[in-house]
Amino acid sequence: MAALLFDFNGTLSDDEGVQCAIFRELFAEQGRPLSEHEYFDVLAGRSDPEIVERWLGAGHPATGEVLERRVQLFRERAGDGSTVPPHVRESVLRAAGRSRLAVVSGAVRSEVDTVLRAAGVDVFEVIVSTEDVTRGKPDPEGYLLALRRLGLAAADAVAIEDAPPGIAAAKAAGLSCVAVLGTAPRERLGQADEIVPRLDAGLVDRLLAR
Description:
Elements: E1 3-6, H1 16-29, H2 36-43, H3 48-56, H4 63-78, H5 86-95, E2 100-104, H6 109-119, E3 126-128, H7 141-150, E4 157-161, H8 164-172, E5 176-180, E6 194-196, H9 201-208
Parallel strand pairs: 1-2, 1-4, 2-3, 4-5, 5-6
Helix pairs in contact: 1-4, 5-9
């Protein structure tokens, strides 16, 4: 396989719990409480702007403030790279040099860069973040842009995701998609071509052997 395209939140960075806690705090401050169940069932896997719009409403006056504060809190709580588990770090470094690597994320570029650098896995040729697209997942725009930047066809790459919106985006871009358990229950990941317990070196070896 010529390229592996990774989602960030919940896939490379085991941080959906951190994300949930931050959004719950910020939405409560805006008088629109969010439960953990609602976050994982309705919002997880979507871009930050879309999460805020869906929960607070389009054009909410606090949108910019909430998004800015969310990035600040995330970098405070996850910027040390501790959300990238050892087995994920090993798998990424194992793939580096053997395949072209990209990140396709609904997060802002600064937090992706901060976490990857702190975890010692800043080895990605292409990073597509929320600043690069006008439509977040489940729209395929991010994956299509990554493929264009890599100069590859969808048949030459595999996407690795953790949530239904990301899987839908990858499939709409024509990619094969592997779903990692953890963020969403297995029954919500059925659109993926394969569901695996976790992202590890064994999975990378198998994908690169295709």
